[in-house]
């Protein structure tokens, strides 16, 4: 049966939106001024034809992947440098001795700024961060094992969860694909979200380093953050909870 012109146009619009990442059904319905039941039916048929991939409560375009770390390093570079500089304020207290640095393009910039802090112990799941800090006059570096993401070069999975459940840090600096004051941190996979949630539970202070473009994004999975977590973007520091 042929697809009506209006339906075809709407599905083309849906696919265009999904190429920017994951969207929820509710947001697609609002954006396209139609009902959630219509969007749900569209996504079901588009998934059957291989155009989209269904996620929890929404969908993403087939073939969409998180941009590689090297590409993300160049995106919003000035904002990320500003965020990393402000993050140093959370390391000024002499009581801060053990720090977690998440994998990510902004946390790499913070790592560059503490390469000579031999008074710190840095726990990380980011390969680039471990390599940047592993030099004779640098911090003590503890690398968390696990499955390595081809996009973020960060570790996740059962081995990572096991290690994170046995450490405690003074400050955890986390990256994120999306940030929401109520939902916490958004990630493209459940494994990534679970990793963020685990380390947040093991930190005295949680600081999220993410530029303002991460606000309001739709992603597949969310990691709730503890009360009092801090979000630093290029405009300053915001405390939540």
Please state how the strands of the largest beta sheet are arranged side by side: 6-5-4-9-12-14-15
- Give the termini distance in whole angstroms: 52 Å
Structural category:
alpha/beta
Strand content: 15-25%
* Main pleated-sheet profile: 7 strands, mixed
DSSP helix count? 9
Broad shape: elongated
Rg, Cα atoms, Å: 20 Å
Number of strands: 15
- Helix/strand order, N-terminal first: HEHHEEHHEHEHEEEHEEEHEEEE
Averaging pLDDT over every residue, what do you get?
Answer: 87
Percent helix, as a range, is 25-40%
Low-confidence stretches: 68-73
How would you describe this protein?
- Residues 68-73 have low confidence and may be disordered.
- The N and C termini lie far apart (52 Å).
- This protein has 9 helices and 15 strands.
- The strands form 4 sheets. The chain has a 7-stranded mixed sheet with strand order 6-5-4-9-12-14-15, sandwiched between helices. Strands 1-3-2 form a 3-stranded antiparallel sheet.
- It has helices at 5-18, 25-32, 36-48, 69-74, 77-87, 105-113, 127-133, 158-164, 190-201; strands at 23-24, 52-55, 58-61, 98-101, 121-124, 140-143, 147-148, 155-156, 169-174, 178-180, 184-187, 203-209, 221-223, 230-233, 236-239.
Describe the structure concisely.
Helices cover 36% and strands 24% of the residues. With 241 residues, the protein is of the alpha/beta class. The protein has a seven-stranded mixed sheet with strand order 6-5-4-9-12-14-15, sandwiched between helices. Strands 1-3-2 form a three-stranded antiparallel sheet. The protein has a three-stranded antiparallel sheet with strand order 10-11-13, covered by helices on one side.
